[in-house]
């Protein structure tokens, strides 16, 4: 059972619940353990009706506001202009990347720290550094994330069978079985191998006809394609593009190299959006961005689709949101009525795969922390951007992304994000920074952060009004 609710029959929480250990919480938040345990932020057990739209615990927020206000009062100031203590959380001022040492050193504004020091919440390390522990579909977090170029792709087989090419291309529904009413890559192989199919185009027209039929069964020559079955768990949801690929493979075309453009533009994008293309692979959804969804950078550099396409996408997004909301209500109420269809949904944003969580560690300096980027260097990936408290996908504004929390078997401990000010308890302010050559806008030279120096300087650059190039 969900660990935020007591079993009324036994008076106990579920047997599979994670052990309750408030002693591991951040010290300033341990006093709130009781209402969190009862899921009672407003005093009523199991009543958290506002979900994530509001802060569950008002006490810590009120304390921070009060402390910030007191620190600004004239009679408490250290001098005529300096406050008595911090009035905001740790704020990034710069960074230095040492790719050889596998470290990214983040520096924070010492003036704004006002005598306080950085504190790394070690209990949050697994939340922000081990993506394999994340639950469900979560691929983003409020913790610290690093964007890097993709690893070099291994060579792909050229003279392999059509089905082998499908597997190598990431399509694993085999034979006459597929799902989501869509023909698979393997079905494209079957169609392309028929003696009366003489071209890739003819094969692909058959794929498109099967897709447009929207049925669970499709009889074609001697085959009865089953399109509503369950494929292996590791398979991606089939779409007609798989079948189109299978047709190409059947006529001898090689497997395309995986494409994921990791550069300053894609890693520097602070917010993504999409438009729907008029047909599969229709402009701008052309190779290498095959499909019916074109993802583009809404806030940042890069090409933007024409305004009419963006306006149409805005209407479509509202429709998608309404459908998803109706589905949640139907599933929650359990009324037994017809579940509304989801309708069209965009393909996943491939660029999110460039971002990975990274572990933060305390430094010898009171105003710096160290990010471990050695795994990226080992995989031959160049680090291009870093962000914190800055999710770029919907519904991921949390540092509690681990499976037990997502499944309701463990509480999301308040203060689970990695960075705070030690004495005031202020959480670090969100930031998004591109990592650029230190010579951009200044003379190249030696750098020194936290006592370490080197010649190949890379630094942070934030989008205005943020400044982080110190």
Give a short synopsis of this structure.
The protein has 470 residues and is α+β, with helices and mostly antiparallel strands. It has 12 helices and 17 strands. The longest helix has 27 residues.
Explain this structure.
With 470 residues, the protein is of the alpha+beta class. The protein has 3 domains: 22-144 and 360-462, no CATH class; 162-250, no CATH class; 273-350, no CATH class. 23% of the residues lie in helices and 17% in strands. It is built from 12 helices and 17 strands. It has helices spanning 33-37, 58-72, 110-113, 125-129, 162-168, 185-193, 200-213, 240-250, 264-267, 307-333, 374-378, 403-406, and strands at 92-98, 103-108, 118-120, 145-148, 217-220, 223-226, 271-276, 293-299, 355-357, 360-362, 368-372, 383-388, 419-421, 431-437, 447-449, 452-454, 458-462. The chain has a 5-stranded antiparallel beta sheet with strand order 9-4-12-14-17, with no helix packed on it. Helix 6 (185-193) crosses helix 7 and helix 6 packs across helix 8 (240-250). The protein is globular, with a radius of gyration of 26 Å.
């Amino acid at each position: 059972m969900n660990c935020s609710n007591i079993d009324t029959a036994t008076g106990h929480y579920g047997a599979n619940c994670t052990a309750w250990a408030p002693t591991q919480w951040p010290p300033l938040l341990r006093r709130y353990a009781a209402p969190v345990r009862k899921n009672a932020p407003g005093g009523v057990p199991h009543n958290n009706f506002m979900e994530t739209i509001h802060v569950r615990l008002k006490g810590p927020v009120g304390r921070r506001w009060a402390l910030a206000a007191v620190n600004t009062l004239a009679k408490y100031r250290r001098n005529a202009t300096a406050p008595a203590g911090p009035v905001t959380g740790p704020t990034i001022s710069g960074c230095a990347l040492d790719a050889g040492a596998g470290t990214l050193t983040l520096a924070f504004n010492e003036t704004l720290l006002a005598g306080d020091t950085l504190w790394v919440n070690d209990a949050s390390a697994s939340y922000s550094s081990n993506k394999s522990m994340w639950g469900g579909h979560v691929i983003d977090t409020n913790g610290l994330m690093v964007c890097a170029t993709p690893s070099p792709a291994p060579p792909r087989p050229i003279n392999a069978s059509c089905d082998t090419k499908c597997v190598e291309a990431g399509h694993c529904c085999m034979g006459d079985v597929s799902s989501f009413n869509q023909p698979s890559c393997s079905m494209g192989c079957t169609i392309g191998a028929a003696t009366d199919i003489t071209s890739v185009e003819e094969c692909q027209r058959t794929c498109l006809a099967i897709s447009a039929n929207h049925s669970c069964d499709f009889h074609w020559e001697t085959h009865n394609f089953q399109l509503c079955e369950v494929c292996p768990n590791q398979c991606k949801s089939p779409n007609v593009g798989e079948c189109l690929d299978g047709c190409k493979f059947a006529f001898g075309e090689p497997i395309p190299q995986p494409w994921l453009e990791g550069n300053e533009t894609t890693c520097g994008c602070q917010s993504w959006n999409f438009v729907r293309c008029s047909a599969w692979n229709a402009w701008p959804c052309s190779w290498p961005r095959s499909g019916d969804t074109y993802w583009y950078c809404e806030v940042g550099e890069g090409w933007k689709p024409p305004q009419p396409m963006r306006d149409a996408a805005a209407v479509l997004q509202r429709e998608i949101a309404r459908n998803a909301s109706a589905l949640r209500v139907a599933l929650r109420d359990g009324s037994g009525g017809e579940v509304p269809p989801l309708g069209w949904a965009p393909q996943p944003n491939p660029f999110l795969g460039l971002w990975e969580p990274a572990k933060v560690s305390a430094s010898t300096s009171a105003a710096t922390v160290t990010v471990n980027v050695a795994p990226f260097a080992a995989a031959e990936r160049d680090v291009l951007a870093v962000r914190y408290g800055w999710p770029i996908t919907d519904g991921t504004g949390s540092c509690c992304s681990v499976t037990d929390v997502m499944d309701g078997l463990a509480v999301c401990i308040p203060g689970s994000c990695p960075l705070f000010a030690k004495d005031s308890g202020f959480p670090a302010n969100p930031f998004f920074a591109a990592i650029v050559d230190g010579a951009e806008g200044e003379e190249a030279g030696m750098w020194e952060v936290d006592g370490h120096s080197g010649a190949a300087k890379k630094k942070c650059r934030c989008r205005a009004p943020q400044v982080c190039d110190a």
